[in-house]
Amino acid sequence: MNLLIYFLLAVMISFVGSLQPGPVNMAVFYHSVNQRYQTAIAVAIGGSLPEVLFSFVAFKLLPIISEHLPVVHQFSSAINSILIIIGLVLMLGKQNRTEEVVFSSEKGFLSGLLLAFLNPQLLVFWIGILTGLSIYQIQIKSIDGQLIFAIGTAVGALIVHLLVMLSVKRYQNSQWVDWLKKYSLKLIGAILIILGLTHLLSS
Q1: Mean pLDDT throughout 31-39?
Q2: What's the structural domain count of the chain?
Q3: Which of 20, 24, 72, 125 has its CA 20 to 30 A from that of 160?
Q4: pTM of the model as a whole
Q5: Domain limits at 25?
């Protein structure tokens, strides 16, 4: 029974946490707007799996992370700088060439994996969540409990990514989707720049 609770708790937390725009959501959105739904699904799956690794590692790092917070923030700052660079490439680059480099439709799963690892807030997010849960006396110490929780984080993220795709697909024939198709790379670039700058300024 506890394992089911851990799983559902992780799904719920990950679902809410994944609602904010991020590299994977933006890639799923881009491929969906361009009616590449199979690629969008592949990106969604690939982009959700790292949640398992990040959340499981968070369990192991939680006891010692407080001693190394400066290192974590430095790593986060470096990745956020990469997000800003990618955002600038998307906004300023030529459509076809930029799409080929950043959002390759031939490597959807691998693209999703890479983009997820470019989200520096995942590890920090899960360490913060686990710290918060411990305040309420919710501590998952068993390996099977931690694994089930970690799997739940991937499921929660995957649900959000798929909802992004389904939402775009539902309104595919509307005028706003046509507008998004035309300016999607620049919009995604702007969002990534804002995310990177926001995280840099808050770290």
Answers
A1: 87
A2: 1
A3: 72
A4: 0.74
A5: 2-202
